[in-house]
Automatic annotation (TrEMBL):
Residues 1-172 are annotated as: Disordered. It comes from Streptomyces odorifer. GO terms for molecular function: serine-type endopeptidase activity. GO terms for biological process: proteolysis. The chain crosses the membrane at residues 203-223. Residues 107-136, 153-165 have a biased composition (Pro residues). SUPFAM superfamilies: PDZ domain-like (SSF50156), Trypsin-like serine proteases (SSF50494). CDD domains: cpPDZ_Deg_HtrA-like. This is PDZ domain-containing protein.
Length: 564
């Protein structure tokens, strides 16, 4: 065999990057033999038998590799035989030209259990190329077939479509390069913090609006529950309407029978106007009322009558008497009148129920109710003229049924709808007065008994004037003692006791004091007049008379006086 050259490399061998000779030797038949494994340790040149196959070096553990590397043989520049390849001449090459570089060490500790691939070093292969992080398409982006393998640079991914659910984390790709998420989200950490704060602000605002709406709804529900007991529409229960007529003796039944015969009077005249009430006496149109209501019409004034149904008519004065405070007017050309029945005032008892009807303060057809509070209550009213000609003396019925200005002349009826009195006066703060001058009812109303009114009305209709019962004496109205004292002389200087009159025939003289009428005490001259006028002319009276401290009883027949 040929010997190898003393120096250099075998023919045809190409040194590698590490300085090892891993070239290919040409065989005599033109074939090449495989080079030695790159990582085999070599302290110099080795021989190889071309007839024997090349065996790979036995694996060594990392410790052995370190020992081989640090052996003195590797440090000395000794020469070793060159390997034989394909009949190449044997020779030696310098060891410093054939020594390989230091073998890389594994990155992990030796495995004492020699578990491949970590037990002993196996065949070493070149490291894969370094893969630099490159942007990858956003999660969910469609990639057409033939997409390059992971790590292969790809052209920039176009901007993604509509935002994906989950916000910026919906586009998160754990394999993307750092900063890609920030670039895609359009801002850095500061902008994300601002977005988070804005989100929290929107959340707080929504919570406040929700709380406001909930509070409003709760308040409304609470209000409905408090006021109406529920949330639904309130429907109130209502009893079925009563049918049929009211009981005849009830206030409603009495009013139903009485109202058609009650009228309202509007009077105008030289002394001003007046408002009052009246009621129908008969079918011929006679209406009874108070004298003070129609007094102004006697001087050429007018009287307008308004009936319950709203019809109106003119009326004329038939007659009146201020001492009784009664007057009669008449309407003409009116049909279908409803006269009211007259009762008996002498049969009335205290506590009997009564109903008063009138037009208080021009409120027509007003109905009030009460009882008889007292009987034979002596009252006087009027006296505005100063000569006593307009003073009325009434032995009245007292009632607590409300009577007000405008009720004057209206009927006071009992439970059988019969007239038992004519409403005339009330007790005001300054005393008993006619209703047209008072402020209103205080529960003390007075009515002229119908028995007296009936006689006066008949005389006014039949004669145009009324007569007054008298005893034929002139009284001392200034007497302050108990009873009624006969005066010293009459008006104009005549005698106090009318000659030939009822008192003169019973030996009543000036200075006598009358203390009782029919056994009822009298306290003053007004009361004596009231007691006398409550009777008719011709009635007989029993009087108790005192003279010089002695009392005696006398009986006399009432006379009559013509007020004209």
């Amino acid at each position: 065999m040929d010997k190898a050259k003393p120096t250099g490399t075998p023919d045809g061998a190409v040194p590698d990057a590490t300085g090892d000779s891993h070239g290919t030797a040409a065989e005599p038949d033109g074939r090449a033999t495989a080079p030695e494994a790159t990582g085999a340790p070599a302290a110099g040149l080795t021989k190889a038998d071309p007839a024997e196959p090349v065996q790979p070096p036995a694996p060594t553990v990392p410790g052995q590799a370190e020992e081989a590397t640090s052996s003195p043989a590797a440090e000395s520049p000794a020469t070793v035989p060159a390997p034989r390849t394909g009949g190449a001449p044997d020779g030696l090459v310098p060891a410093q030209q054939q020594a390989p570089a230091e073998r890389p060490r594994p990155l992990h500790a030796p495995d004492p259990y020699s578990t491949p691939p970590y037990g002993e070093p196996g065949p070493w292969a070149p490291a894969p190329p370094v893969q630099r992080p490159v942007p990858t398409p956003a999660h969910g982006t469609y990639l057409p077939p033939g997409t390059p393998a992971h790590g292969t640079p790809v052209p920039p991914v176009p901007e993604a479509g509509p935002p994906l659910p989950g916000g910026e984390w919906g586009r998160y790709d754990p394999w993307a390069a750092p900063g890609a998420l920030v670039a895609e989200s359009g801002g850095g950490p500061g902008e994300r913090r601002r977005e988070r704060r804005a989100g929290r602000g929107r959340l707080v605002g929504a919570a406040l609006v929700l709380a406001l709406v909930a509070g409003s709804v709760g308040g409304y529900v609470g209000m409905r529950l408090e006021r109406h007991g529920g949330l639904g529409t309130v429907e109130l229960e209502q009893a079925s309407g009563q049918t049929g007529e009211r009981a005849p003796d009830s206030v409603a039944g009495i009013a139903a029978r009485t109202l058609p015969g009650v009228v309202t009077l509007h009077v105008s005249g030289g002394d001003g106007g007046a408002l009052g009430t009246g009621f129908v006496l008969d079918g011929r149109g006679h209406i009874l009322t108070n004298h003070h209501v129609v007094e102004s019409a006697s001087d050429g004034g007018s009287i307008r009558v308004t009936f319950n149904g709203g019809e109106t008519a003119r009326a004329r004065m038939v007659g009146g008497d201020p001492g009784y405070d009664l007057a009669v007017v008449k309407v003409s050309g009116v049909s279908g009148l409803t006269p009211l029945p007259l009762g008996d005032s002498d049969e009335v008892r205290v506590g009997d129920p009564v109903v008063a009807i009138g037009a208080p303060f021009d409120l027509a057809n007003t109905v009030t109710s009460g009882i008889i509070s007292a009987k034979e209550r002596p009252i006087t009213a009027g006296g505005e003229k100063g000569d006593g000609s307009d003073i009325s003396y009434v032995d009245a019925l007292q009632t607590d049924a409300p009577i007000n200005p405008g009720n004057s002349g209206g009927p006071l009826v009992d439970e059988r709808a019969r007239v038992i009195g004519i409403n005339s006066a009330i007790h005001a703060a300054g005393g008993v007065d006619r209703q047209d001058d008072s402020a209103g009812s205080v529960g003390l109303g007075f009515a002229i008994p119908v028995n007296q009114a009936k006689r006066v009305a008949e005389e006014l209709i039949n004669h145009g004037r009324a007569t007054h019962p008298v005893i034929g004496v002139t009284l001392d109205m200034g007497y302050e003692g108990e009873g009624a004292k006969v005066g010293g002389e009459a008006a104009g200087g005549g005698p106090a006791v009318t000659p030939g009159g009822p008192a003169d025939r019973t030996d009543i003289a000036a200075g006598d004091v009358i203390t009782e009428v029919d056994g009822v005490p009298v306290a003053s001259g007004e009361e004596l007049i009231i007691k006398i006028r409550s009777h008719r002319p011709g009635d007989r009276l029993d009087l108790t008379v005192e003279r010089d401290g002695e009392s005696r009883r006398v009986t006399l027949e009432l006379g009559s006086s013509d007020p004209s």
